[in-house]
Amino acid sequence: MKWRLASGVLCDKKIPHRLKGKFYRVVVRPTLLYGVECWPVKNAHVQKMHVAEMRMIRWMCGHTRSDKIRNEVIREKVGVASVVDKLREARLRWFEHVKRRCADALVRRCEGLVVEGTRRGRGRPKKYWGEVIR
Fold it and tell me: Does the predicted TM-score (pTM) go above 0.85?
């Protein structure tokens, strides 16, 4: 929704690419990465976010994939880092907060979460946040 609201500004050809990149970093990317610190992100999620971001940036520059311009060149023109790098930074920043917290707080919080008699689902177990950080 934020992209749609801002597309009038971001797709205007009169506005310089660097200014569009700054607007993208301030408005669009934070909404895309909201709460990402706690997501148990899979590679498929990362790939979808990367594709969505590149589509938006190409659209801002007025290029299509058929123009055959490399992603790095377009990113450099706009001045935007990869969403994958920002996702990793946010996750590690949150990990530092959790690591500084005392170990007793985690044990006390998780005591009530054990539920007996629950059935397991089929297939591979879901990744939890600790596995993603590792």
Answer: no
* pLDDT recorded at residue 105: 61
- Closest by CA to 39, choosing from 88, 105, 2, is 88
Handedness of CA 112, 113, 116, 118 (dihedral sign): positive
Structure tokens, 107 = 């044990």
Domain segments of the chain: what residues? 2-112
For helices 43-61 and 71-78, give the axis angle rounded to 10 degrees.
60
Q: Give the span between the Cα atoms of 44 and 51, in whole angstroms.
A: 11
Q: Where are the alpha helices (DSSP H) in 62-133?
A: 71-78, 83-100, 103-110, 129-133
Contact 86, 40 (CB under 8 A): no
